[in-house]
Write a structure and sequence with these properties.
Blueprint (H helix, E strand, L loop, with lengths): L1 H12 L10 E2 L3 E3 L7 E8 L2 E9 L11 H5 L3 E8 L5 E6 L8 E6 L8 E7 L11 E3 L6 E8 L2 E9 L13 E8 L9 E8 L30 H19 L6 E3 L25 E3 L14 H6 L25 E7 L6 H13 L7 E4 L6 H4 L3 H11 L7 E3 L19 H13 L12 E4 L2 E9 L2 E5 L10 H21 L6 E6 L8 H12 L9 E5 L7 E3 L8 E5 L8 E6 L6 E4 L23
Parallel strand pairs: 1-13, 2-13, 16-17, 17-18, 21-22, 22-23, 23-25
Antiparallel strand pairs: 3-4, 4-5, 5-11, 6-7, 6-12, 7-8, 8-9, 10-11, 12-13, 14-15, 16-26, 19-20, 20-21, 24-25, 26-27
Length: 616
């Protein structure tokens, strides 16, 4: 270890070109490890202080713990907590040699006026410019979980959980030695102010070694998790090529701009969010190359709404030829493409969402958007953003589109609508005016049932797969009574659908926006009780597919300790929609194609056995 540290120190000496502005570089250190709990704490920087706390969990050392399929395939997880007594970014990640250039890092960026907070993985892409140590490049595949960043009272806190071993990334060896690099900045940007390296060595914790089945391979240039995406250089080249293509296309597209207006909107009576009193709100209108009458609600008649006919204002988008799936409940394959958490800016609206829509299969049953179709800071919660998304982006889909609301679509609109005292209520009405019964804008024969009084919820029974979508979002909770009532309505709708179609389905797909949190316990406690107390349901595969991951893909088998409940969190943002396939002719009916040749589903690989692998 001494020789290694000397080598690292020598590398830091030559880190920056002579005469350049040099960041504060700390010498490499060896962190102490508590072997009984495989954890440690260290102060990486003194003034202001940066504290690094870590804990490693592996299937070998923590055999009583529950691990997801991805965590087991990765050999375990690393839990990290960073405490920085300053306001700025913090970063830490594995390195091959302690050199910042060529390493990888999890970068924790606090929220600013121009951007949201972010905790994500980055390549440190070896480019020196005028003395700057590196250029950061976000990784395409974000797999962190448990992420969080908070900046309060002059202190920055960041936490995350990372897989120990991922294809084409530098591994973290839980049985041996791993080099890490770290950096902090006094401003909320990515220019380095202080940086250093350290070594975590678990070798002393395993004097007799580990069983062969738990042996850890350090060679990340070989296939590790069924992922053959090429070398890191290949990945970086692909990212650069995509960015250049994106910029070329975007240069030819119209920009979306927002301009306020004094045109009022009229809210309809609703049992959904009534957070603040109604006072004839005013909604700003977006000026785009779409020429559309200024209004906050469609003017369709009752007959037109019932039949799905379009008004002059709401024209049905022209799509390419679409072959209707058989209107049958005989066993077969159901395909649901799922996207979400996009678009958050003009670029994503005009370039990425249409590109995602192009990636869906023409023979799939439908496309589902898992909510958060805006970022309030960019859209100003303007109904014209919704309509541009509906007509110009989603409207190009060759298959029917369904959508559920996310918190960004109305709850996070507080203070975003000019001259309005009830932003949340206005934004919710705007969402309903734009997206309720969205699927009727396509010709299809899916047997859709909407929940009475809460028509954003729907169910479909096709090919012995029961699909149910409910309105469930992440916080903040603005009205506890409304929150609880909505969760109860969601549960009652699911329960009623399960009872109505008893004996008619072999698998259940639950769709929503919300990543499960403590604020959803009332809903999930009812659901788990219903499943475990029913002799048929407890042997029926259930899969819960949701958004809210902001670029992070997750699969969790035995969700809520139920062996027949699988949770899948989509990546969203710029990633292609995943294809959730339910083949009710198979004993393992659930298969997931991530619609990307570089990554695979661990639990439900469509080219291998699906889920569940064992009889329920």
């Amino acid at each position: 270890s001494v020789n290694l540290l000397d080598e690292l120190q020598s590398m830091w000496e030559d880190e920056v070109a002579p005469g350049a502005t040099r960041p504060m570089i700390h010498p490499p250190t060896l962190l102490d490890v508590e072997c009984d709990r495989l954890r440690g704490t260290a102060t990486l920087h003194d003034d202001p202080s940066l504290t690094f706390k870590f804990n490693v969990k592996t299937p070998y050392a923590n055999q009583r713990n529950s691990f997801t399929s991805a965590q087991r395939a990765a050999g375990g997880i690393l839990n990290v907590n960073l405490l920085y007594k300053g306001e700025g970014y913090v970063a830490v990640g594995p390195s091959r040699d302690g050199d910042m250039v060529g390493s990888e890092a999890v970068l924790c960026i606090p929220e600013t006026d121009d951007s949201e907070s972010d905790v994500a993985k980055y390549f440190l892409n070896g480019v020196r410019r005028g003395g700057d140590v590196t250029e950061i490049v976000p990784m395409k595949h974000q797999t962190l979980s448990g992420t969080g960043i908070e900046q309060k009272n002059g202190i920055t806190k960041c936490s995350f959980t990372k897989l120990l071993r991922e294809a084409r990334e530098i591994p973290i060896n839980p049985y041996g030695r791993t080099i890490f690099v770290w950096a902090v900045g006094d401003e909320d940007d990515a220019s380095y102010h202080a940086q250093g390296s350290f070594v975590v060595d678990f070798t002393k914790c395993y004097p007799d070694g580990v069983p062969e089945e738990f042996a850890f391979e350090d060679d990340v240039d070989t296939e590790v998790m069924g992922d053959d995406r090429g070398t890191i250089d290949d990945v970086l080249a692909e990212i650069q090529e995509e960015e250049e293509e994106e910029e070329d296309v975007i240069a030819t597209l119209p920009r979306i701009t927002l301009e306020p207006t004094n045109a009022p909107t009229t809210a309809r009576p609703t049992k959904t969010p009534t957070i603040s009193p109604s006072k004839s709100p005013v909604v700003p209108v977006m000026a785009t190359q779409m020429t559309e009458a200024t209004t906050s609600a469609p003017t369709a008649t009752a007959t037109e709404k019932a039949t799905g006919a379009a008004t002059e204002e709401e024209t049905v988008p022209e799509t390419e030829a679409y072959v209707l799936p058989p209107a049958s409940n005989e066993p077969g394959l159901t395909q649901i493409f799922v996207m979400g958490d996009a678009p958050f800016n003009d670029k994503e609206m005009t370039y990425w969402v249409p590109k995602q829509v192009e990636a869906v299969a023409y023979d799939a049953d439908f496309l589902f958007h898992a909510g958060n179709q805006m970022r309030p800071a960019a859209s100003k919660c303007n109904i014209m953003w919704n309509k541009f998304m509906r007509d110009t982006a989603l409207g190009k889909s060759p298959i029917p589109v369904f959508i559920t609301p996310g918190e960004n679509d109305y709850v996070q609109c507080r203070g975003k609508i000019e001259d309005s005292d009830n932003d949340v209520e206005v934004a919710w009405e705007n969402w309903k005016d734009t997206y309720l019964h969205l699927d009727k804008r396509w010709e299809h024969n899916l047997p859709v049932v909407y929940q009475e009084g809460r028509e954003e919820n729907f169910s479909i029974l096709t090919k012995r797969a029961l699909i149910i979508s409910v309105h469930m979002i992440n916080g903040p909770v603005l009205d506890e009574e409304e929150w609880a009532d909505r969760h109860l309505d969601n549960y009652n709708f699911i329960k009623e659908r399960l009872e109505t179609h008893a004996g008619e389905f072999d698998a259940v797909v639950l769709l929503s926006h919300a990543k499960p949190e403590d604020t959803h316990k009332d809903f999930w406690s009812r659901m788990t009780f219903t499943i475990v107390t029913d002799p048929v349901l407890k042997k029926t595969p259930f899969v819960y597919v949701h958004g809210g991951g902001n670029g992070i893909y997750e699969e969790e088998e035995r969700f809520l300790n139920l062996k027949n409940l699988l949770r899948v969190q989509i990546e969203g943002r710029k990633r292609n929609p995943i294809n959730v396939m339910i083949d009710t002719t198979s004993a393992s009916p659930v298969k997931i194609d991530r619609n990307d040749k570089t990554v695979w589903s661990v639990c439900c690989n469509p080219w291998l056995q699906g889920w569940p692998k064992d009889p329920l």
